[in-house]
User: Which sequence fits this backbone?
């Protein structure tokens, strides 16, 4: 959970240029008129690794969206027990490789005989929703507070910075465990799986914002001294315009990169929480929960551990590769 | 102390608690069947003594992944701790040392003979044996026994153990325990009298036929007042049995050495073969299992079954399997169906749940036939007199859900299309969560839509154990497990089904059964000092409970345990559902 971002986006390295004009100025005149966006897109397209990551991510999103359909075609209902697939003495699947067969393409869960393929699909739903939405929460909070701290300065900056220090030092995992176990089963009228999803989004998102907040604050601090800000000020622009029309567009690149990179962190956090038993409540599937379940069977039925493990690995890797590629593409200093 | 037992179960010690009595002298003769070769085989120790031997010497290497709650006889509540107490604590009466049902009989231990019971069955008089001594050589007197029993009352100083004796002996005196006793000799409990050093008299208010079983619990053992250190007593309790604690490092190890002042001629129960007994406490259960397989550990004294990996090893390898046993632990894993939460106030809706459940699915969720247990058919575990596993009123033994019957029951209940309910389950018990999932899936096929609600397992006493809270939360089905503190129908069932045992907190009569005829049967049993006749009464209680469909029994719990081939005199004691530790010896003298 408290794994910071892998990307090092420091002020020096990725300080964005004020606008496309700067790029144009340093670049060849032949490509004049190309915006930062276009340049980034061209670079991204050329980066095969990043594009591979992006395709995998899109594929996973598609799997999650189509989970009910796919489960009907190639799987079984997600909570249907198949006792006939299970050896009653060892509680492990009868078939080899975790019971993989024509009917159960990823095998069956030990002890219950539920279809792992269906559970992986539905697990993808929760995992991706939690990871993406909590990243969004972090980004929105981090951007707002970072901008406010950096631009307003003074006591606002002090308070926000201390709060961020406090949150970064907070034992987030322990807090999440404590919080999740005392919260009621239904919140805001939703119960079961989705209430827990909401809690996870809230917890992971809330504790993630200081990372992004610090970066935004640092960027804002350096940007607000720049000429174009002074120019808008002298032209009589209000704080709101300066913050959202002048500063924010210049912060878009680091924010975007950072958001992409905290998604995999969030996936791992979500898996860790599920692994510790405070994630999505059973019988709803989650990858971390499957991993934790698999622990007691790993010698007899390693496939049950390998499958969700590989899914988590592939997803995290894909998001990381894509995020790295995006950072390279958006970095004006990169060639 | 129903709640206590539950807490124990919650703490992960899944073993039935039995009386720790060691009546052992007769074991040699009663084991004639085992003497035929004594070769070990799978489950052999359940019915016979494996490797019967009188060879003394050597060191017994015991291991556990769970430290004792306390070695103070009055504070321990884990089953294995009661079993260990047989090594150093003698009681007035203790269980015979024999496999099978013979082990459930109480024999005089410190008492010279069976108690003399008055005609109105309210007065029990015990005479003590001559020549019984503590480890420091002082004779054990009736006053030491009374003082030990008084310590049970001091729940503010030495809490943790069972408190049944308070219910029977306080009789309105509100005795505060010896530490706050105004009596100069600290022997102020009125219901227990010690007219001389070898006589102790218990005067009950109402007849209570199970009193000897309460006196066979370690907490009723003798404690010399001058050596009582209150809270610290557990670190070095006075020993009356053949061994004494020489060193205890919490969380690490316990060492027992011979008690020089124990005289085998006064003890007909204990064998005392090894010269020393070492207990190693680890935190790594998997490592413990591999040590068992390699023979560097003799047994796991928690006796709650090996982990999944070792289970596979043992069951696949005939050589290992020959030294394994899967005895019934005396626990039943069950779902309690609340009579106070609609629609379960209607018996047919409760029946629908029982019929719709998948017996095999629930059994597999508990670990399967070997490691989980046999499919539960009724609410009296097989090691209790009066039980009959073939009594199967809901046809569960055949293993398949009976959706047709469930639908009929639903129609009779006026809910032909099903209903919604909540299954409450402890979050720290993976197997219980799995049974909840299985139950949820099979109930859905009959149209009963159940939501699983997990709660903090450590809070069981105030979550499902509080009827008000359970009603408020709408817990229709509550998953739990129960083992007896002593192996009679009263010891097992009363807390679960007697309406007078419905508590505001720490309740275990989860369905809130309130049936005067059931309560009446327990009163009848309390008068019945003949175990055979009492067994008949418990049979009736069991039938009434099953007819009311208050409980859905999942399995009669079992645990697959492995024992070192070098062990002698290995047999499963029915009062604990585990090996009888005091009988064990080692064949190689090491």
Assistant:
């Amino acid at each position: 959970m408290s794994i910071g971002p892998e990307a090092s986006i420091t002020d020096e390295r990725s300080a964005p240029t004020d606008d496309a004009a700067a790029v144009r100025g340093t670049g060849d005149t032949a490509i004049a008129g190309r915006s930062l966006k276009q340049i980034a897109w061209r670079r991204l397209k050329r980066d095969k690794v990043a594009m591979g990551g992006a395709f995998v991510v899109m594929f996973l999103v598609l799997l999650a969206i189509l989970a009910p359909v796919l489960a009907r075609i190639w799987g079984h209902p997600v909570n249907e027990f198949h006792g006939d697939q299970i050896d009653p003495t060892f509680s492990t699947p009868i078939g080899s490789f975790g019971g993989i067969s024509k009917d159960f393409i990823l095998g069956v869960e030990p002890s219950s005989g539920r279809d792992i393929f269906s559970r992986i699909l539905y697990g993808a739903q929760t995992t991706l929703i939690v990871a993406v939405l909590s990243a969004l929460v972090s980004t929105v909070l981090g951007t707002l507070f970072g901008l406010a701290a950096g631009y307003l300065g003074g006591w606002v900056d002090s308070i926000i910075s201390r709060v961020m220090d406090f949150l970064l030092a907070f034992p987030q995992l322990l807090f999440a465990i404590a919080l999740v176990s005392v919260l009621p089963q239904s919140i805001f009228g939703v119960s079961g799986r989705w209430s827990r999803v909401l809690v996870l989004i809230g917890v992971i998102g809330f504790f993630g914002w200081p990372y992004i907040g610090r970066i935004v604050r640092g960027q804002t601090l350096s940007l607000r001294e720049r000429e174009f800000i002074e120019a808008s000020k002298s032209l009589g622009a209000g704080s709101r315009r300066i913050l959202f029309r002048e500063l924010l567009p210049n912060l878009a690149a680091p924010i975007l990169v950072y958001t992409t990179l905290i998604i995999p962190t969030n996936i791992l956090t979500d898996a860790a929480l599920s692994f510790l038993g405070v994630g999505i409540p059973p019988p709803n599937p989650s990858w971390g929960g499957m991993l934790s379940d698999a622990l007691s069977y790993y010698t007899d039925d390693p496939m049950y551990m390998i499958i969700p493990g590989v899914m988590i690995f592939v997803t995290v890797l894909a998001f990381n590769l894509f995020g790295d590629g995006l950072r390279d593409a958006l970095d004006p200093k990169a060639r | 102390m129903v709640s206590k037992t539950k807490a124990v179960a919650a703490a992960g010690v899944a073993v039935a608690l039995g009386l720790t009595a060691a009546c052992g002298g007769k074991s040699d003769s009663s084991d004639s069947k085992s003497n035929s070769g004594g070769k070990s085989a799978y489950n052999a120790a359940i019915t016979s003594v494996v490797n019967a031997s009188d060879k003394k010497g050597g060191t017994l290497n015991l291991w556990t992944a769970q430290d004792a709650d306390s070695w103070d006889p009055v504070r321990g509540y884990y089953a294995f701790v009661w079993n260990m107490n047989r090594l150093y604590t003698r009681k007035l009466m203790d269980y015979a040392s024999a496999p099978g049902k013979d082990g459930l009989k109480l024999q005089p231990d410190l008492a010279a003979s069976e108690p003399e019971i008055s005609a109105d069955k309210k007065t029990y008089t015990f005479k003590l044996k001559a020549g019984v001594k503590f480890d420091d050589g002082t004779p054990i007197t009736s006053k030491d026994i009374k003082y030990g029993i008084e310590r049970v009352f001091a729940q503010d100083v030495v809490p943790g153990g069972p408190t049944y004796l308070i219910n029977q002996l306080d009789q309105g005196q509100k005795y505060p325990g010896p530490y706050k006793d105004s009596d100069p000799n600290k022997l102020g409990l009125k219901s227990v009298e010690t007219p001389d050093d070898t006589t102790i008299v218990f005067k009950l208010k109402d007849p209570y036929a199970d009193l000897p079983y309460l006196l066979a619990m370690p907490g009723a053992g003798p404690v010399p007042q001058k050596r009582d250190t209150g809270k610290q007593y557990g670190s070095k309790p006075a020993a009356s049995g053949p061994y004494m604690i020489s060193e205890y490092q919490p969380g690490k190890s316990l060492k027992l050495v011979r008690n020089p002042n124990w005289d085998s001629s006064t003890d007909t129960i204990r064998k005392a073969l090894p010269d020393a007994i070492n207990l190693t406490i680890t935190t790594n259960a998997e490592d413990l299992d591999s040590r068992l397989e390699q023979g560097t550990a003799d047994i796991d004294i928690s006796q709650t079954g090996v982990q999944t990996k070792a289970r596979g090893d043992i069951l696949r390898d005939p050589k290992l399997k020959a030294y394994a046993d899967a005895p019934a632990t005396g626990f039943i894993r069950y779902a309690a169906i609340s009579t106070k939460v609609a629609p379960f106030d209607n018996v047919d809706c409760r029946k629908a749940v029982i019929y719709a459940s998948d017996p095999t699915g629930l059994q597999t969720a508990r670990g399967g036939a070997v490691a989980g247990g046999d499919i539960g058919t009724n609410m009296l575990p097989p090691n209790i007199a009066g039980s009959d596993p073939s009594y199967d009123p809901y046809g569960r033994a055949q293993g398949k859900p009976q959706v047709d019957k469930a639908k009929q029951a639903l129609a009779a209940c006026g809910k032909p299309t099903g209903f919604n309910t909540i299954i409450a389950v402890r979050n720290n018990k993976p197997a219980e969560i799995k049974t909840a999932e299985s139950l949820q899936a099979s109930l859905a096929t009959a149209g009963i839509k159940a939501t699983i609600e997990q709660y903090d397992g450590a809070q069981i006493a105030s979550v499902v154990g509080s009827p008000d809270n359970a009603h408020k939360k709408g817990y229709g089905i509550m998953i739990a497990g129960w083992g007896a503190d002593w192996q009679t129908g009263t010891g097992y069932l009363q807390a679960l089904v007697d309406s007078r045992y419905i508590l505001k907190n720490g309740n275990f009569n989860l369905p809130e059964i309130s049936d005067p005829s059931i309560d009446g049967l327990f009163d009848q049993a309390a008068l019945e000092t003949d175990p055979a006749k009492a067994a008949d009464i418990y049979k009736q209680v069991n039938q009434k409970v099953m007819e009311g469909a208050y409980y859905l029994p999942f399995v009669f719990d079992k645990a697959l345990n492995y024992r070192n081939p070098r062990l002698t005199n290995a047999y499963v004691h029915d009062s604990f559902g585990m090996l009888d530790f005091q009988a064990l010896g080692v064949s190689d003298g090491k």
